[in-house]
Amino acid sequence: MGDLQGTMAMTLAVELHAVSLDKRLTDVTCQCLKGQSIHLLGENGAGKSSLLEVIAGLTDADNGHCRIDDTPVNALTLPELARFRAFHAQSSAASFALSVNDYLHFYASSQVSPLPTLLEFTMEVSHLLTRRITTLSGGEKQRVELCRALLQVWPAIEAGDALVLLDEPLQGLDIRHQYALMALTKALTGKGNTVILTSHDIGLSANNADQIWLLKNGSLVANGTPTEVVNEFNLNATFGCHFAVKKLENFLQIQVCDPIVMP
Amino acid sequence: MPRFLLAGLTCSCLIVIAAIAAVTWSMEADGAVKSHIFFSLQVPLMVTAVLTGAVLTVSAGTLQVVLRNPLADPGIIGITSGASLVAAVLILSAPAIAQTHFHYILPLGCFIGAIASTVLIYRLARRLQQASMAVILAGIAVSTLSGAVIAWLYLFTDAQSMRNLTFWLMGSLYQADGTLLWVAAPIMFLSCAYQLAQAKKLNWLYAGEKAAAVAGVSPQQLIRRVLLAASIGVGAAVSVAGSIAFLGLLVPHLLRLLVGFDNRIILPASALTGALFLLLVALATELMGTVTFPVSMITATLGGPLLLWAIYKGQWR
Fold first, then answer.
1. In percent, how much of chain A has pLDDT > 70?
2. Fold (CATH) for A2-256
């Protein structure tokens, strides 16, 4: 595993240079390597989703450039991107009561039933296949949406060539499925896929990410490995409240130590 | 199941076509007369029935997906009435010179009416993204306005054009003369074919426009193109058969209850069911011999109760 990572670590997967967008992103410069998992943290409205959409090729940056495997992302067409780039959006409203099976099937480029073992093992959706999407609970819907996003590029994932972008994938998931999702991203990056996700769970991110990007008001506060980036100073600058970061054995424990007091 | 459905519908259409032909061939007349009746009356009748039935239902199916509204139908959201309004104005008030070139002017007028109301509805739907009811209400407003204008025109016309118009506004399969049909038929066919070809991409709209972009198609472009194709097709249908109510609303919806939401099945099955339905109307008319039914009278008679049933069953979501 270590050797594999060593050879793959030479390839740049995503490279952002001075990316600016409207009033949402200012001068964002960072990069990640193939096979890494990147967690994007920041307060509400910090520009996390906008940054993901730029990388996904769904929004063009006003300034700067974004490259995927050395190709400018806006030089790739939507069908080209659709083959290797998965994108999970924060919310999608369904106005038709179609079955989960149909819903997944329409977007999938691989078989839906049986689902790929890895996906079924972590996201556990096969018992939902006959349900209508309008009847699912929030967390069930979220798991189905994650599967839908991943199934679209499943052949690329198998080949280890996928770029997986997940906007708040933890939203609505129960604690077991939160950890299952972390296991899933680890399995994906293990095959060589690159995963970039946004999250609000600093603790989970600090202990599962290869890189953390901290975003505030559309600018990058810090980026690097969790041990480099996750410290009291950076977290305070990003979220505007006080944190205590304790390094235990192989584990970063993070707590807010100055809770908000009502006036 | 889907394959059987499509095959069954195709066979049914062919059987009804054969039955309509049989009505003529069983008549007591000599061969030349029979073949004249067949080719100059029944072939146009069947072409009208098949293509208008198909294009109205396919367009409705597409509109429902694109506007994210299961109530969308060319009739309900006002595309048909836009086309009818222009046609009524032309029929009732066109100068004598225009009458001789009606084959071209009438469909053209219908297209303009259909496209104008589609653009209006599309703009509204964009503006009021979350309020899908507003689109329906706007359609009702457009229909009501068209109805009012047509009612005003009634006051100023002679009895004969009025009767022509009434029949035409209720929909009729016998309205089309040869030239008009040969202009409109290819248009309806192409409109259907284009929409059917987009079925896979239309499936990508079920999770919203962003999901469609992620899946590899520009949603704005797709929506604009299929709306244009649908409104041109509906315009052509209105120009040959008048306005036919309810068919488009009902057929795709009932089929979804049966076979699910895959547009690659729903759209062709809708086309075949729409064609079959109008062929049956044509057959009934042929068998009755003397009476020609206004088509909307039949579609509404069957459609109203079916719609109530679907609402009662709570399947209307």
1. 94
2. Rossmann fold (3.40.50)
